[in-house]
Every structure is written in structure tokens, then in C-alpha cells.
């Protein structure tokens, strides 16, 4: 990474190589980055009224919470992956980043797509290629677009623990102990760092984890609800629909 940009802590949540014959146009908000490379012409994204073709010459990055429409005019081959990059990076929203393939690794892209469509290549090599491509692609994100909220080690520690165990029954006093702050200080600093109370932050992290599992795994929705700390799939569905504008099953249908 460039020295002027913060380090990215990558976590990949989905990777796919597809032959698309249909691509639903209405795409719900995602709490993670999406990257697309389509070597065949005929597909597109639309953001803020602007049409962005997907083609062999570019990788397109869609930041978290950036609404897009998508579609295609003919069947195409497609490579996509989802990832988070850490709090500073994941605050970016509101625009698409179009990265020329010449700045990345065309061979890495082609090898990933081939491995996913027809097999071959070890998981370790695929992971290495994916990390290399993603770090190179993030170089296209202008430093001015990164929201430079001062880091808060206590709140970062709190978030890391909740992300690792979203199903636990977290109370605000427990969260304050994890952050190593008095209760009122924890609430104040959590608001300053995230814009949310500790209770609301836990709900946001649980829903984000559920969204990643829905998009990147075949786990049963009831199981996802339990893993993420919801009473049952109906409880998850109510909260999820309020946050993302559609239920878990509909969200999963949208795929990459």
C-alpha cells in the first residue's frame, strides 16, 4: 500500500466465477466491498444515474453502502469477490472506483476465473492472487475519500470481539469492560468513533455478519440467525428488512 494510505486488514467473504445469463437489477445495500471483472462485454452497473460498463479492461470496486443497479444485455463470464478492509477503508461510500487492469494483474484475474469455472489452482494460490489484486485495486481509492476518524483503540477492541462472537448476549457494561472504559466514557467514545451507541453498534455488526453469511455461504437462515445473536429467523428478518430494505431470503437471491 501507498505510504499515505492506512493499512488494509482484508477479510474475504465471497469469491465467485460465473457464467451470467441473468443479473437482477435491484441490488440491496451491502456492508462490504464488491469487486467485479467481466472479460466479456455486455454487462453494466449504474450508480447515481451514471452507467458503468463492465469489461475486460477494468476492475470496478463498489464500496460498502453504495447503492447500485446492475444488468446485462447478453450472457457473460464474470469474476467477483466481496471483502472488508478495516474501519477506515470501509467508511468509503458514494462512488465507484474503476481500476484499469493494466495497474493490476491480468494474468491473476484470468487464472482466478479459470480456476473457479473449470477447476485447477490450489486454494493457497487463489488466496494469494486475490489478496494481491485487492491491495493493488485499493490503491485507486483517493486518500481524500477516506474518512479520517481518529482511531480509538478501546472501541476497535470492542468491535473486534463482537465481530468474532456476534451471537453472545452483549450488555453495555460488558462492552465497556472490553473497551477498558467507564460506562459513560464507553458510550461517549463509541458515538464519537462510530456514530452509534454500543447497543446499536452490536446490532449493526450482527446484521453485517448476517449479510456476509447470506451473500457468501449456503448456511440455513435459521442457523445464521442463531450464529448472529437473533432469537430466530423471524427476529433476524424484521431487523434485516429494516436495515437493508429486503428480507434475508431476497438478499441472498441477489448473489454477487
What summary fits the major beta sheet?
5 strands, antiparallel
Structural class: alpha+beta
Q: How far apart lie the N and C ends?
A: 26 Å
Strand content: 15-25%
**Radius of gyration of CA atoms, rounded to a whole number:** 19 Å
* Low-confidence residue ranges: none
Q: What do the pLDDT scores average to?
A: 90
How many helical elements? Answer: 10
What general outline do the C-alpha atoms trace? globular
Number of strands: 8
Please give the share of residues in helix: 40-55%
User: What topology, given as strand order, has the largest sheet?
Assistant: 1-7-2-5-8
Protein architecture, described:
With 256 residues, the protein is an alpha+beta fold. It has helices at 87-90, 106-118, 123-138, 153-164, 172-179, 183-194, 198-216, 221-227, 233-244, 248-253; strands spanning 11-20, 33-37, 43-47, 50-54, 58-62, 69-72, 76-84, 97-100. α2 crosses α3. The two termini are 26 Å apart.
Can you give keywords for this protein?
256 residues, alpha+beta, five-stranded antiparallel β-sheet, three-stranded antiparallel β-sheet, 8 strands, 18% strand
Please write out the topology.
Elements lengths: L10 E10 L12 E5 L5 E5 L2 E5 L3 E5 L6 E4 L3 E9 L2 H4 L6 E4 L5 H13 L4 H16 L14 H12 L7 H8 L3 H12 L3 H19 L4 H7 L5 H12 L3 H6 L3
Antiparallel strand pairs: 1-7, 2-5, 2-7, 3-4, 3-6, 5-8
Helix pairs in contact: 2-3, 4-5, 5-6
